[in-house]
Amino acid sequence: MTASIAGSPSKAWKRGRRLTGARQRLVSDGTDGDPPLTTPLRTPLFIGGEIYRGSTYGPKHPLAIPRVSTVIDLSRAMGWLPDEVYLDTHVASERELSRFHSPDYIAALKRAEAEQRVDEATAARHNLGKLENPVFAEMYRRPAHSSGSALQAARILGDRPAGLVYAPAAGTHHARRDRASGFCYFNAPVLGILELLDHGLERVLYVDLDAHHGDGVEEAFADDDRVLTVSIHEDGRWPYSGKAEDRAGGMARNLPVPPGFNDSEMEHVMAAAVLPLARAFRPQAMVIQTGADALAEDPLSRLELSNRSLWDAVAALLPLAPRVLVVGGGGYNPWSVGRCWTGIWAVMSGRDPAAVPPTAEAERVLRSLTWNRAAGRNPPEHWFTTLADAPRPGPVRDAVKRVAEMAAS
User: Fold this and answer.
1) How many CB atoms lie within 10 A of CB 4?
2) Does 8 score more than 60 pLDDT?
3) For 145-172, how does the pLDDT look when each residue is reduced to its tens digit (9 = 90+)?
């Protein structure tokens, strides 16, 4: 598949962003529960759950921090999350999980949660019980909730001509069929995409904005010409895959970007590669993974984006498919991920998160967060009093231009 790039990158980027307002001028169906299948969703829906509020991978793990619960609390505190658009998550059943994951792996994960231990053979076979993918109290139930939210969103969207759903817990993009990987036990994006395909869709675009390569999703659909995967990620960062020349059988485009990747460079790769690829593919549905670990204040990457850059990327992508599922992903600074993902929900709802300062209640939510890393012991005041980062523009380096050109060709 070759995308034809019309016009300059900056003009293409601005064309994508201008369409967002029209895409968001949809209003609520006003029905209880899921809207009728024959009508488009007229208001974006938010799928959340309370399991994330008290669940932690352990005190020393990067996912010791609250994330989804912070986004729910901040969105409500800002007045952006009324009850009528909030849905409690569906919990995926073993049968539903087995649409992608092996029955042996599902059983092993469920048993590990019940026994709070794994034997040596199980640990080696399924990559469980290590610092990366530890044994913890909700190690089966939590990813079953996350995967369930992706399935729930895909079912809401699959039989409708249009709609927009946010499932911030559903960005677990590294898990394989029978192995945990990169803090991901089940692969929620894969399960969501499979559900969309099962509803008869023939072109699904997956765009991954996480600092880490979306390897599990790419691998799952490498031989399926119904799914195009596009990943922007830090070059040389774990899992050390996703090279620019790697097309995974033809249905992948990878943009490995150098450390220091800035807002201007994100604008360039979106305009020069990602948006033209999306337009050429003409997706019937799109899944956008919005890992916040590409932000400058995140401890697990060396990228330098502001949250405005991710908001702009999402805004540019939304008009390019009638059905869109937006999920979370990485993000290991509780303030930066909470502010970023809350802003993404604002963008999806037709609001400008940079234009409104946090309410007093939202500021209380932000001030209540703690972090056991050095940066958390003396956080800067703007982490409490703003949602939007200061822009982080910079030069567009040749390495970034090269990967954009390779992806677009």
Assistant:
1) 8
2) no
3) 999 999 999 999 998 999 999 999 999 9
DSSP characters over 259-318 = TT--HHHHHHHIIIIIHHHHHHH--SEEEEE--GGGBTT-TT----B-HHHHHHHHHHHG
* 186 contacts 80 by C-beta, under 8 angstroms: no
Kindly tell me the burial class for residue 14, based on how many C-beta atoms sit within 10 Å of its own C-beta (0-12, 13-18, 19 or more): middle
Q: Which helix (H) or strand (E) holds 199?
A: none
Contact by Cβ (8 Å): 171, 330: yes
Residue 98: φ, ψ to 5°: -75, -5
Burial, 376: exposed, middle or buried (Cβ in 10 Å; 0-12, 13-18, 19+)? middle
Q: Of 101, 320, 114, whose CA–CA distance to 191 is shortest?
A: 101
Q: How confident is the model at residue 207 (pLDDT cuts 50, 70, 90)?
A: very high
Burial of 372 (0-12, 13-18, 19+ CB in 10 A): exposed
Instruction: Tell me how far CA of residue 163 lies from CA of 27, 159, 173, 283, 387, in angstroms.
Output: 11, 10, 22, 13, 26
Diameter of the chain measured on Cα atoms: 59
The set of catalytic residues is 174
Residue 228 pLDDT grade (very low, low, confident, very high; cuts 50, 70, 90): very high
Mean pLDDT of the region 350-356:
96
Q: Are 176 and 219 in contact (CB under 8 A)?
A: yes
Specify the pLDDT at position 10.
35
Residue 45 tokens, joined: 């829906």
**Whole-number Å distance between alpha carbons of 19 and 118:** 50
pTM above 0.85, yes or no: yes
- Strand 252-257 to strand 45-48: parallel, antiparallel, or no bridges (unpaired)? unpaired
CA distances from 380 to 183, 207, 319, 376, 390 (A): 28, 32, 35, 9, 13
Cα 253 to Cα 222: distance, rounded to the nearest angstrom: 11
Q: What is the pLDDT of residues 24-48, one digit of tens each?
A: 322 233 334 555 555 777 799 999 9
Peptide bond just before 161 cis, omega within 30 deg: no
Whole-number CA gyration radius for the chain: 20
Hey, is 204 helix, strand or coil?
A: strand
